[in-house]
Amino acid sequence: MTVPNGVPDRMLTRIGGLLRQAESTDNAHEAEAFLAAAQRLATRSSIDLAVARAHVRGRERRPAPVQRVIPIGAVGKKGLRTYVQLFVAIAHANDVRCDVARTSTQVYAYGFDADIDTCEALYASLLIQMVRASDHYIKSGAYRSATVEKVVDEQRWGRTVRRRVQAPVAAVTARLNFQMAFAARVGRRLAVVKQEVETAAVAPSETAAGTALALRDKEIELVDFYAKTSEARGTWRGPQVSAGHSAAARRAGDRAGKAARLGNSPELGAPRGELTQREDAE
Description:
This protein is of the alpha+beta class. The protein has one domain. 52% of the residues lie in helices and 13% in strands. It has seven helices and five strands. It has helices at residues 9-24, 28-54, 80-92, 113-140, 171-201, 208-229, 247-257; strands at residues 66-71, 97-100, 106-111, 147-156, 159-168. The strands form two sheets. The protein has a three-stranded antiparallel sheet, with helices on both faces. Strand 4 (147-156) and strand 5 form a beta hairpin. Helix 1 runs antiparallel to helix 2 and helix 1 packs parallel to helix 4 (113-140). The radius of gyration is 21 Å and the shape is globular.
């Protein structure tokens, strides 16, 4: 059985098994190895489907890009912009374009069903890991030793004077900075894995030319679909932390988002099971 125009169920199960292993281990090296293996498998599957699409005859039903709404969270929930950042970073590494709702409560994903399925699976797993890691950071109290620069207005001699001051970092500021750095690092690492797999797929061989052409055709088809379908008036510029910048929290988030190396891992077949989102309230 397969998902319509998408990844075979068994492929999603294999990816899900790897993600489940990443979630359940406290070893950063193992978690990164499982994550890299999941992205590697997802990219190979996407390439195989692109090549298959290129061979579908005109009279047959040819898979086409679609738009899908991805729920992120309820209106007013804290941290939604960093959640969006995480999804967009994953999407960028899996040939999916995104528009973001003004409230950051949902993302409009544009791509082939298979690629969007992969993004949703990766996001469900990585969101849990990101929230868990930021929880540990906040609970450790490490953020309390840092300060953040703020601009304050003071009244002097009847006029307003603006000056910069150092203030303690609030937990919500530390959490948001941590998650921003986590999402950015994860996005870069997934992009590296994707590039490695695609480079290997188009390396000189008997089938390389056809694979490269199929990937290029897929990209053009997606660009055309996005241009015709998207109603976005601008480009999402990522989350902004109005409360301030915490270098210490970002360094901690970056460390949590990366591992010492990208390793290989056996592809596990265990079912992923239901993943739930933990609340990120302060």
